[in-house]
Amino acid sequence: MKNTMQRSAVLLILLAALGPVNAGSLNPPGPPAPTMATLQQIYNRQHAGSDPCFDNAGTNRFVDCATTALGTSNGTVKDMVSGLIWLKNANCFGLINWANANIKAGALASGQCGLTDGSKPGDWRLPTLDEWEAVNMPGCYPQPGGPTIPDKTGNACYLTGIPWATDVQSNPYWSSTPNATVPGDAWAFDLASREVNGGTRTFNLWVWPVRNGR
Predict the structure, then answer these.
(1) Residue 158 located in a structural domain
(2) Full residue range of the structural domain in which residue 100 is found
(3) What is the pLDDT along the chain (214 residues), one digit of tens a residue?
(4) The total number of structural domains that make up the chain
(5) E strand or H helix at 13
(6) Is position 22 within any domain?
(7) Exposure string for 11-50, b = 16+ CB within 10 A, e = fewer
């Protein structure tokens, strides 16, 4: 009996030293977080604010990219097939040689050429020869005789269909691709004849910058 009382006294002393002990709650801290995304959340993820290029009908190949609202162009157009972003103004720089074409395209930024897209120097460049050939519309030469690229829908010729750019020239445009076999030449794509031309870099040709989609 004496030993039992001594053990009880020691236990009371230890409890007093440790202070009050609170038992943990068995209740969950709150309802579990939802695991399913809403349709709006899925839409927002697929149409991020950095790439506001939409086509309500879903039938057009080339669609205007917006600034703050759908339909308010920021000066760019997206090719929904390749994902490439084209400057809406197809003749901002006039006729210039290949070196200057690369320089001006690389320095292009929001605030120039009708752009309000927030782009910075270094975002833009000349299209490669492959990118020019990918936008080529074979059936548009020799008739109807205009730019040999598709219209907005991608199904008709630019001249007879719905336009998606401004001031498009039916003439050769520079590509960024140098001619590997002739160091002084670079490749150009002729929007009048669909021909790939290896032009001397000092020639003055047209310029149509692009940038990669986001």
Answers:
(1) yes
(2) 41-211
(3) 545 555 555 445 544 555 554 555 555 555 444 444 434 334 444 444 455 787 766 789 999 998 655 557 899 999 999 999 999 999 999 999 999 999 999 999 999 999 999 999 999 999 999 999 999 998 999 888 889 999 999 999 999 999 999 999 999 999 999 999 999 999 999 999 988 988 899 999 999 999 998 6
(4) 1
(5) helix 2-18
(6) no
(7) eeeeeeeeeeeeeeeeeeeeeeeeeeeeeeeeeeeeeeee
